[in-house]
Design a protein that fits this description.
This protein is of the alpha+beta class. The chain has four domains: 79 residues, Alpha-Beta Plaits, CATH 3.30.70; 71 residues, Ubiquitin-like (UB roll) (Roll); 157 residues, no CATH class; 68 residues, no CATH class. It has eleven helices and 22 strands. The strands form six sheets. It has a five-stranded antiparallel sheet with strand order 11-9-15-21-20. Strands 2-3-1-4 form a four-stranded antiparallel sheet.
């Protein structure tokens, strides 16, 4: 801040030498003349002094037998005469300031945070229906009413906050996750196998188990029945109680492994030739600067930057660059070491995917071989993993229709 004030008032950088430089500094201090950035090189001093202080140095230099020469002029008083002589520049400066002032009265960016189940397109469509869009005057926006309308429109939103930050409208919401999932206590369901295998572990918490440890099941086999029978004294079924089947059932099965890699592949060999084209997006419309790319095959790297002259002042201007890098496709052949390394990498990713799903691997039998045009990694894994697909039903569904009417009447 102090440096800016010095620049506004103007100052000069001078070179001072002579008979009594120490007396020169003492007299400047007595007359309250500010000196800064003082440097000495042999018998010559370099320093900065305010413009008003420089005009008072004549008497001091005469008394001390020193001389002072201006090396550099700095500050607004020296800049204004140059600016006033350039009328077109001044006009453009005022036009830019007016444009910034005019643009700051509008909304040029809308950002939404916290929406997980509600898509951004749906949210923007909702705002558009209420006249809230990019380019609208910010004074027409009622923040409090907007927050109320968001909560009324989207029942899954429990909290919302909207605020204007410069020319950006920032909307933050929080969704109620409980609304997106059905109430678990209201579910009645059976549990069916979704994998073939041999049952090695089984814990049933609710429902009637239909299989046991050691049974081999196929996909679609009923594992746990959600209908629990209630018997009469004569062991006949009086009625059924319906509940949600809940169990942890693990099966041992064979997981096949297959990965392949062709002998030949295309490698990008960059030629070193690069071409850059620039463009400007103004109010959503693109204006190209430069022609099209002259290369036959190339990579394209796009870089965009929003024009933000001041913090929080986002204007509807996007500066972009397309960088084209030419390359040639060259056919290569994998060496044995390269092929094995790449197949091993694919195999490791496959195993990592199984582990993420909670699959336990107890035995591995894989090998790498070749055929006429490719490398292959094939084999089998003995794995233990959880099975069980929950299939909901209702009490008036087909599964309950087998209950005798007399039993219900009893």
């Amino acid at each position: 801040m102090i440096g800016f004030l010095k620049w506004l008032r103007g100052y000069v950088q001078i070179k001072m030498w002579g008979f009594a430089p120490e007396r020169f500094f003492n007299l400047c201090s007595n007359k309250n003349i500010l000196l800064w950035n003082i440097k000495k090189e042999e018998d010559i001093y370099y320093l900065c002094i305010s413009l008003a202080g420089f005009y008072r140095l004549k008497e001091i230099t005469r008394k001390t037998g020193t001389r002072a020469v201006i090396l550099k002029r700095c500050g607004l008083p020296f800049l204004m005469p140059k600016l006033l002589s350039r009328k077109i520049f001044i006009l453009g400066l005022f036009a830019a300031c007016f444009f910034w002032f005019w643009s700051s009265r509008y909304i040029w960016k809308i950002s939404i945070e916290g929406n997980l189940n509600i898509t951004e397109d749906l949210f923007l469509e909702f705002l558009e229906e209420r006249g809230i869009r990019v380019g609208m005057p910010s004074e027409e926006l009622d923040i409090e009413e907007l927050e109320k309308e968001i909560r009324r429109e989207f029942q899954e939103i429990t909290w919302t906050s909207a605020r204007l930050s410069g020319t950006s409208l920032e909307i933050s919401v929080k969704e109620n996750d409980a609304l997106s999932a059905p109430a678990q206590e209201d579910i009645t369901s059976d549990l069916y196998a979704d994998k073939d295998g041999l049952i090695v572990s089984m814990i049933v918490r609710s429902g009637v188990p239909q299989v046991k440890i050691g049974d081999r099941v196929e996909e679609g086999t009923l594992l746990v029945d959600g209908r629990v029978p209630v018997y009469n004294e004569d062991t006949t079924v009086r009625k059924y109680q319906y509940m949600r089947s809940d169990a942890d059932i693990y099966v041992q099965r064979v997981q096949e492994v297959y990965e392949e890699l062709p002998f030949y592949y295309l490698e990008k060999v960059y030629t070193g030739r690069v071409q850059e084209n620039h463009y400007i997006k103004l109010f959503g419309k693109m204006f190209e600067i430069g022609g099209s790319c002259d290369f036959t095959v190339y990579d394209t790297v796009i870089t965009e930057k929003e024009f933000e002259p001041l913090e929080g002042l986002t204007l509807p201007v996007v500066l972009g660059t397309r960088c084209y890098r030419e390359y040639q496709n060259t056919e290569r052949i994998y060496s044995t070491e390269e092929a094995k390394e790449l197949l091993a990498g694919k195999y490791s990713l496959f195993l990592a995917g199984l582990e993420e799903k909670g699959v336990q691997i107890i035995e591995k039998d894989v090998k790498i071989e070749t055929d006429s045009d490719r490398w292959k990694l094939i084999g089998e894994l003995q794995v233990i993993e959880k099975t069980g697909k929950e299939v909901p039903f209702t009490e008036d569904g087909g599964e309950q229709s087998a209950v005798p009417a007399e039993s219900e009447q009893e």
